[in-house]
């Protein structure tokens, strides 16, 4: 049955393809065969919005086994799709696929999407980041870090302005590994969320609407990069003019 449905994902008949996606999703993890996953990965780059979003929905129903390198690569591209529905569903799918979907490229792009023009996309990206944060802590996917006191990743309502703590903590994991790839995207997200930031000799303090969070800066190189990125962004938005 599953193999027959996989054949129907060839995309030649849009309605048949969409129906096959929905049916395969109902099978859940049982449908996570290599043939099904490969065909769904191909559909992620389909020019038809509904076909692409349907593939996203089916993949997240298949679970973590669907997070192949090809699927993650295609989802990363989908995060940049011009259609907000595609970006929204790609974020949701990444959040559901688990630790196999966690890459620095994915996390960086999700932080970028916290500034998306569409609130649904911002919310979906935030939810994905919060799930990735919890997964990273549990599995030690990101090695060589310690978490400061307090709740690291909290459940609750997710939006561009909520769960600031979890997103800052995720950024902190990279800082403690002295991985600076995330800095530009993180800074943009903070400004979009209307956070105030103070950088002193050893810390960056982020002030949200209801909370403040302190991140330790491990060395001058990271501090200089943080300051330079803030200055570059301010210049782009003409703050100094």
TrEMBL record:
Top-level taxon in the UniProt lineage: Eukaryota
UniProt-recorded name of the protein: HEAT repeat domain-containing protein
Sample GO molecular function, one term: deoxyhypusine monooxygenase activity
PANTHER family: HEAT REPEAT-CONTAINING PROTEIN 4, PBS LYASE HEAT-LIKE PROTEIN
Pfam families the UniProt entry points to: HEAT_2
């Amino acid at each position: 049955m599953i193999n027959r449905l996989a054949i129907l994902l060839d995309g030649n008949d849009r309605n048949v393809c969409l129906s096959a996606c929905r049916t395969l999703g109902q099978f859940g993890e049982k449908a996570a065969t290599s043939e099904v996953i490969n065909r769904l990965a191909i559909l992620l780059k389909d020019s038809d919005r509904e076909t692409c979003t349907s593939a996203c929905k089916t993949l997240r129903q298949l679970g973590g086994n669907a997070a192949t390198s090809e699927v993650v690569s295609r989802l990363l591209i989908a995060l940049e799709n011009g259609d907000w529905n595609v970006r929204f569903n790609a974020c949701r799918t990444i959040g559901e696929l688990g630790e196999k979907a966690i890459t620095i490229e994915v996390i960086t792009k999700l932080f970028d999407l916290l500034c998306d023009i569409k609130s649904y996309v911002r919310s979906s990206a935030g939810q994905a980041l919060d799930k990735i944060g919890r997964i990273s802590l549990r599995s030690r996917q990101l090695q060589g870090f310690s978490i400061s006191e307090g709740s690291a990743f909290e459940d609750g309502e997710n939006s561009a302005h909520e769960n600031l703590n979890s997103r800052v903590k995720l950024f902190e994991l990279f800082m403690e590994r002295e991985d600076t790839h995330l800095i530009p995207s993180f800074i943009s997200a903070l400004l979009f969320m209307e956070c105030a930031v103070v950088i002193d000799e050893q810390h960056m303090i982020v002030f949200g609407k209801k909370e403040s969070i302190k991140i330790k800066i491990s060395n001058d190189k990271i501090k200089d990069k943080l300051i330079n990125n803030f200055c570059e962004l301010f210049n782009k938005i003409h703050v100094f003019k």
